[in-house]
Amino acid sequence: MKVEECLNELEEILEESWNLPLFKGKVFVDVDRIKENFENIRSSLPEEIRQAKAIVSDRSQIINDAKNEADTIIKVAQEKARNIVSQDELVKRAESTSESILQEAKAQAREMKKAANEYVEDLMKRTDDALMNNITELRQARKDLRASVQN
After folding, report:
1. What is the pLDDT averaged over residues 56-79?
2. How far apart are CA 70 and CA 115, in angstroms?
3. How many other C-beta atoms can be found within 10 angstroms of the C-beta atom of residue 43?
4. How far apart are CA 14 and CA 33, in angstroms?
5. What's 24's DSSP letter?
6. pLDDT at residue 114, as a whole number
7. Three-state SS at 7
8. Collapsing DSSP states into helix, strand and coil, what is residue 79?
9. For residue 124, what are the β-bridge partners?
10. pLDDT higher than threshold 70 for residue 86
């Protein structure tokens, strides 16, 4: 059961609880059902944390792929430069061309890395926001539960 479902179940339990006469805001609740939901939440959280770690892992893979592609582009540029070098005039053009290709490859690699980082940062932020919302809801449910049990 997912955290969101467990929190909805806890909310449902509170809504279905019997009000105590003369005690405004105090209710009878099914403690076993509440405990079961807390246990389900505890077991669900590691899965959501695992998903967040997978996103971080994907970020590393995207960066590695971008680096590998940049390395390939650089190697191709260097190989082209080696093939062009034969005469003085051709050497000068080859150096200019290879430098240009190298700079372009580095620029592309930087852009790809930047885009990958932005993408992963966005994913991580959304995951972080979702987890924080779930934790906030869980804490509020626990607080409400404690308040209802104490009263």
Report:
1. 86
2. 14
3. 12
4. 11
5. T
6. 94
7. helix
8. helix
9. none
10. no
H/E element, 28: strand 27-28
pTM of the model: 0.36
Using only C-alpha atoms, what is the Rg of the chain? 29
pLDDT higher than threshold 70 for residue 70: yes
Write the pLDDT tens digit of every residue in 4-41. 888 888 888 888 877 777 777 777 788 888 888 888 88
Backbone angles phi, psi at 28, to 5 degrees: -90, 135
What is the model's pLDDT at position 72?
Answer: 93
**Rounded distance between C-alpha atoms, residue 135 and residue 114, angstroms:** 31
Residue 92's Cβ-side half-sphere holds a number of Cα atoms within 13 Å equal to 2
Distance CA 29, CA 73 (A): 65
CA quadruple 18, 23, 24, 27: dihedral, nearest 10? -30
**Cα distances (Å, whole numbers) of residue 149 to 33, 64, 82, 99:** 14, 53, 79, 73
- Phi, psi for 30 (deg, rounded to 5): -85, 95
Q: Which amino acid is at 145?
A: L
